[in-house]
Design a protein that fits this description.
heterodimer; A: 229 residues; mainly alpha; 2 domains; 12 helices; 0% strand; B: 337 residues; 3 domains; Protein YIPF3 (chain B)
Chain lengths: 229, 337
């Protein structure tokens, strides 16, 4: 029995010999998350229905949407960051921007990939910039905030498509201009409200400028969108 | 058996407990595999390797468990050629993953190295932007160049956005790739390429300037072009463009030339450096304006016109193009065809 006990205390002793070179301390790294997750949660989510899991995540995403639309100075968006919402918004925006006039003739309209690249690449640049300027926010928190704050612009895009159904005239352009400008201001304001606290107070302008540029490009892309005839 | 599972439940590995108890058959094997290598029999990592020689292990383990643990290496050596494939694959996957992770981590950790170059205040940036349009006539003493990258980087991104705007309004066609990629490539290519080229030249002629200073100087030098393009992409007057090109573009070029002059010694080196820089900078602005300008693009588009026959294009394009002289001559040209 003594022999059995010793061997079980080191259940991964053989692991380093089998597949992983010996200089890597694998044992410690693996053991931590398993023990922690069990003790922290107290209940297991493994045996719950998939529907509940999905609904819980969707509810979390939805509550964050509300935070963006009504930007109080709350830390919920920062504390429990996720990238599902940004992905959802990004895909929706890219899909709505599909099928433009320019797109059909291969004229360099906003293609799906382009929208994707602009959103993610832009967020990453802004995040790196804020880190370089001495911000205390973490990388993914910033990505999460910037992604969620596209929501007003996505809504504006949906409105624009509806307006464009009625035909493109000067009036419709004026309506679209107003809607896009309002949502652009909203996006910038909301993201600034969330991000500004983590920045040194004298440098807020430097952090806000790329955010402004980012949402401006997206908003301008939405404004110039024209559906194919 | 029962004593074994009791021992297990007292360990921090309680997460694995269920699996171990459920697989009754495996537990028997586990009891037999008392040497060090047996720990892998439930692990994913060594699974492939394990599958290959599990049978041999079960048979051979009885003898080996009495052996000294020091012979572990020998035992492995014996097994090595059997499980070599599995081990190699697992090892390689692990190494590749480790390399990727450490590369990404290093990149992120290295941000701290760049931080000093972004140490600016908004007022400093504003004053540097304004200074970039004011040439200083001080040639005898080296002028100060701030080694800072925030302003240049933001100016390059602004230029990218303006360029995108210009491309969109002019309806530029790019066969391979996207507008975004082209705009980013053009702006960053110019900034980095010309900076390194001028730095190389200044190294040849022994000018006192570092790469960082060059990047900062040329980056702030892009403020003039940004202004000019922002105006002229929206207001289409050729005269206005040439006036702005000479005035604002010229001022920002002169500023850079003055700085380079003050940091170079000798006539020929000065002529070489400043000539190359001003030529590149002024022609870059011209290129950006005319390459993505509405009227020129319209001309090229109409002349190429691959999709439609000439007659249809005349009927459709004449009303738009008769707005100016160029357009009129074009419509005449097309009318003659």
């Amino acid at each position: 029995l003594v022999v059995i006990h010793i061997n079980i205390v080191r259940p991964f002793a053989g692991l380093s010999d089998v597949s992983i070179s010996e200089d890597v301390p694998v044992e410690g790294d693996i053991s931590v998350p398993v023990a922690a997750s069990v003790t922290e949660d107290g209940f297991s989510t493994l045996d719950e229905p998939v529907k509940e899991t999905v609904l819980r995540d969707l509810r979390a995403v939805g509550s964050k949407f509300v935070h963006v639309l009504y930007p109080r100075r709350s830390s919920a968006l920062l504390r429990d960051w996720d990238l599902w919402g940004p992905l959802l918004l990004c895909v929706t925006l890219a899909l709505l921007l599909q099928g433009g006039e320019a797109d059909s003739e291969d004229r360099g309209g906003p293609q799906f990939a382009e929208v994707f690249v602009i959103i993610w690449f832009g967020s990453i640049i802004i995040t790196l910039n804020s880190k370089l300027l001495g911000g205390t926010i973490s990388f993914f928190q910033s990505l999460c905030v910037l992604g969620y704050c596209i929501l007003p612009l996505t809504v504006a895009m949906a409105v624009c498509r509806l307006v464009l159904l009625g035909g493109s005239s000067t009036v419709s352009f004026a309506v679209r201009l107003v809607v896009v400008s309002a949502s652009f201001g909203w996006s910038t304001f909301a993201s600034t409200a969330f991000l500004a606290d983590s920045q040194p107070p004298n440098r807020k302008a430097l952090v806000v400028y790329p955010v402004f540029l980012f949402y401006f490009v997206i908003g301008w892309m939405i404004l110039t969108f024209a559906p194919s005839q | 058996m029962s004593s074994v599972s009791e021992n297990r439940s007292s360990e921090p590995w309680s997460g694995f407990e269920e699996n171990l108890i459920q697989g009754g058959g495996s537990a028997v094997i586990d009891m037999e595999n008392m040497d060090d290598t047996s720990g892998s029999s439930f692990e994913d990592v060594g699974e492939m390797h394990q599958r290959m020689n599990e049978d041999e292990e079960v048979n051979g383990e009885q003898d080996e468990e009495q052996e000294d643990p020091n012979q572990d290496g020998e035992f492995l050596g014996m097994k090595a050629f059997k499980g070599q494939l599995g081990r190699q694959v697992a090892d390689e996957v692990w190494q590749a993953g480790k390399r990727q992770a450490s590369k990404a981590f290093n990149l992120y950790a290295n941000i701290d190295i760049l931080r000093p170059y972004f140490d600016v205040e908004p007022i400093q940036v504003r004053s540097r932007l304004i200074e970039s349009l004011i040439p200083v006539r001080m040639v005898n003493f080296p002028q100060k160049v701030a080694g800072e990258l925030y302003g240049p980087l933001m100016l390059v991104f602004t230029l990218v956005a303006i360029l995108l705007h210009g491309m969109k309004t002019s309806g530029t066609i790019i066969r391979e790739g996207t507008l975004m990629g082209t705009a980013i490539g053009t702006c960053f290519g110019y900034w980095l390429g010309v900076s390194s080229f001028i730095y190389f030249l200044s190294y040849l002629v022994n000018a006192q300037i570092t790469m960082l200073q060059m990047l900062s100087l040329l980056g702030y030098g892009l403020f003039g072009p940004c202004l000019v393009l922002l105006v002229t992409y929206n207001i289409h007057f050729h005269f206005l463009f040439y006036a702005l090109w000479l005035l604002i573009g010229g001022l920002s070029t002169l500023r850079m030339v003055a700085v380079l002059l003050s940091r170079t010694v000798g006539q020929t080196p000065r002529l070489l450096l400043c000539g190359v820089l001003s030529l590149l900078h002024m022609s870059f602005l011209l290129y950006l304006h005319f390459n993505y300008h509405q009227i020129i693009e319209g001309l090229l588009d109409s002349l190429e016109g691959p999709h439609l026959s000439p007659i249809q294009r005349v009927a459709r394009d004449v009303p738009e193009l008769t707005l100016n002289v160029t357009g009129r001559s074009l419509s005449l040209l097309l009318g003659n065809q």
